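Lab notebook, bench 4. Still working through the backlog of constructs that have no structural model yet. Next entry is a single chain of 74 residues. Request: give me the structure tokens for it.
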Amino acid sequence: MGNEDINLAPNATGIDRIDTSSDEALRLWAGRLNATADQIRQAVSEVGDRASDVELHLKGSRSTTNDDRINATR
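Model written out:
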């Protein structure tokens, strides 16, 4: 299924915008970004509704630093 087949943000201003008031959009973006609807809502509140910004935010919040890995082994 291509992006053109999914109405991801019916009330937003573009295809790469996430409409947090739409349960369907949240469900689709959550699946696409491997996150929960609550994580999507939180990310949108922090970085805005642009999907690429939300994706980067989610990836950054899930990543670990080298310091995190070193501290975990101590």
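Notes after review: Helices lie at 23-33, 37-47, 51-62, 66-73. DSSP finds four helices and no strands in the chain. Flag for follow-up if needed.
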